[in-house]
């Protein structure tokens, strides 16, 4: 078997899996920018919104940072994978970018 992976035939956001007589390109974990294999522990570098913790790229909880990320009144922060979103608090709705009571 020739190791086709030795020539790095895959794209930057993929890793190469050598198979008998062939190879396949598999997508890196969402937490990675470039990788050497499957999973968040095989990242070359962590994607934006992720930090290396215990040799793995883990999500940063922007909602628990010391400085608030959702600055508008009556707005709550919701952590998402690799990011966050600001939503109107319960009992409020978004009207032209402002959270007003419903």
UniProtKB/TrEMBL annotation:
Keywords: Disulfide bond, EGF-like domain, Repeat, Signal
Listed GO MF terms: calcium ion binding
PANTHER family tied to this protein: EGF-LIKE DOMAIN-CONTAINING PROTEIN (PTHR24034:SF209)
Entry superkingdom: Eukaryota
Pfam families: EGF_CA (PF07645)
Database matches in InterPro entries: ECM_structural_protein (IPR050751), EGF (IPR000742), EGF-like_Ca-bd_dom (IPR001881), EGF-type_Asp/Asn_hydroxyl_site (IPR000152), EGF_Ca-bd_CS (IPR018097), Furin_repeat (IPR006212), NOTCH1_EGF-like (IPR049883)
Keyword check for Repeat: yes
Tagged with keyword Lipoprotein: no
Protein name: CRE2A protein
EGF-like domain span: 59-98
Similarity section: Belongs to the CRELD family.
Coiled-coil regions, chain positions: none
The gene coding this protein: Creld2a
């Amino acid at each position: 078997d020739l190791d086709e992976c030795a020539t790095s035939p895959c794209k930057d956001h993929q890793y190469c899996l050598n198979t008998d007589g062939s190879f396949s390109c598999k997508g890196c974990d969402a937490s990675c920018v470039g990788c050497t294999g499957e999973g968040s522990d095989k990242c070359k570098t962590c994607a934006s919104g992720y930090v290396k913790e215990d040799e793995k790229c883990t999500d940063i909880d922007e909602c628990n940072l010391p400085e608030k990320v959702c600055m508008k009144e009556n707005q709550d922060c919701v952590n998402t994978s690799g990011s966050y979103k600001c939503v109107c608090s319960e009992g409020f709705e978004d009207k032209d970018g402002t959270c007003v009571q419903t």
